[in-house]
Each structure stands twice: as C-alpha cells, then as structure tokens.
Fold:
Amino acid sequence: SPERLANIAEVVPVVKLVNTLIASAVEERASDIHIEPDEDAVRVRIRVDGLLREAVTLPKPLQSAVISRVKILSDLDIADSRVPKDGRFRFTVEDREVDLRVSTFPTIHGENVVLRLLDKSVGLMRLEDLGFSEEMLAEYRRAIARPHGLLLVTGPTGSGKTTTLYATLAILNTPDKNIITIENPVEYHLAQVRQSQVNPKAGLTFASGLRSILRQDPDIIMVGEIRDLETAQTAVQAALTGHLVLTTLHTNDAVGAITRLVDMGVEPFLIASSVVGVLAQRLVRTICPRCKQPYAASPQLRALLGIHEGKGGLTFYRGKGCQYCRDSGYRGRVGIFEFLTISDRLRELVLPKAAATELKRAALGEGMRDLRIDGILKATRGLTSIEEVLRVTQADGG
Structure:
C-alpha cells in the first residue's frame, strides 16, 4: 500500500526500498514503474490495466540513491546521467521470476526511470483467452492455417499485439514447422522457436534480419514490426514465396494497415496478392467481478452509440468500486478486435489504391464487425463498460 511504501521510505536502506517498490508493483499486476524526479520530491507511479496511478512520493534526498540502485541492478554506469540508457535485470518475487527492462532519460530535475515488467509466470496466453468472439476466432484460425501469406496485427502501442502474436505462434508451433522470429526485443521465450532480436549497432535490423531468416529454410516468420519500406517489401516477398509471415503495424484500424503499406510505397498488386488478413485490436479494462452492477442505457447513450432498433431496454454494466479492484471498478483487461479478411472485392479495391473509407465500407458490407461494435457487444455481456469501449475507440471516428 502507499502508506506502507511511505513508511519504508523513511526508515529503511535503499536496497530494501527498491525491492519493495518492485514487489508491490508485481503484486498490483503493474506493467510499468515510473520513477519521476520533481523539483522537491520523487513521484513513483505504476501502470495497471493500461492506466497510470500514483504509488508513492519519495523525499527528494532519496532520489540519487534510488536511481543509482536501479542502475546498479541493470548494469548501467551510475556516474553518467547525461544521456538516455537502456538496461535489464531479473527479479524474483515469491517464486515468481520477473524480467525488467529499464530505460533512463535525463530531465531538468534528474534522471527519469521507467521499468517495464515482464512477468514470466503470467507469460503466454492462449488464443482462446484473449477475448475473440467464436466467429472471429474461427476466421482468424482459418487465416493462420494458410501455408503462406502476410498476416498483419495492428493497433497503437500497448494494445496487446505482441501477446496475440505469441499466442498465434504457440498454435502454429508444431514439429513439422520451422518458426523464426526477429523481434525488438524478445519478450518471452518460446520453446522450439528460433528467436532473435534486432541489434542496430551491429547492423542487425528488421530488414537485414528478415533477409537472413529467408536463408534459414523457415516455414513461418514473425517480424516484430514493419517500420520502413525495405522491411515491408521483404515481408511481402517472403509471403509471396511460400512463407507465412506475421507482423505488426501501428494503425487505428484494419483497413488502415492496408493503406499504410500503400503509403509506404509497396505496390498495390503485391499487397493484394500477399495479405491474407488484418487483425486490429485494443485492450479494454474488464469490470471487477466482485462489484459489477447492471444499469439500463439512457436514450442519450443509445443515440450516441447509434442503437435505435429494439423496443426493449439495453443493459450495460459498471463496477461500483471495492477493495478487490482498489475502488476503480475494473480488474484485468480483455481484447476487442476487428478482423479483415481480404476478399476478391477488397483486392479489386486495393489495386487502384482506394481510400480507407471505401475499403472499410466494403469490409463492413461483407460482414466485418468493427472494433466499436465488438466492444459494445462485450459491454452488453458485462465484460467491460461502455465508457471503456468509447475511450479506446474514440480516435477511430467510428
């Protein structure tokens, strides 16, 4: 608890303080710890279920000791605080092994430190547990069962793309397949999968790594992210020459991934013939099971959501807030998805570089369920709140 941390900060050596900070963040299911020096104190915040919240404020005199301790753990030079640094270390909390990636950044009040927690015990999730509807899961499984093609997973940073890719590889990982990855960095270790990570200093980039992988007789290739034309073209070529290639992009929705490849400079006919499907996703917080309450949607809310049909009331749910969810009303997260299958009609539209709105209209006409609709359906089932769905789909203009 914050009180416990504040008390410890006053009396104990810094080693114990840092250990307690990490242990309590793990206990709270945090994904990140932020150690943020201000003018007269050091604020510590943790990110839980995608949102930051304050954990504790430490006295300013502890600043250099706490930051030095984290830098020692991650093998960084404690004397140099003028340039950003990256490191990592392992930490054990009650028999759970946690990997921490550390990033420092010099600010006017001292080094800002962010620790990303990768809990090995939580680790890999199964595709069935990510939040797919049954129909969409079946559609997605059909796409990944293809012997070759390009499968894109898209969404902003922190929307669960890596988790989805790892869950996908776990299904594809059979003794008759050779799977090779190039990642930035490798987050979880997959048995019997050749995993590598980019090392730009040594000249190993996504593009050069992908070219080398093609000489390793792969069946399935996972590329962490497509950032440039060179990587995009190599991935498309790999998909067209008999490999299944899985990768990610940062776009708001599924059709946006297609237009992004066009904007990068990939020839539309190559996109049309290589892409087998695009999965767009977001993470929404799930309502706390211990304080969940139903309520009827107001006419204003129904109008906002564009739900006019049906005479009956529409029920949504919200968490009242309790000890179990720290009064937030939420605990844990689940994915909302849209899956774009590249049909013949869509291929015809990709060739003349049709606009995203036109592609989306065609996809919806063919029965694609978009992110917001998937979210609303999850809200009516009581998995998440309508506020969460609106929060993560607002930017999509849908």
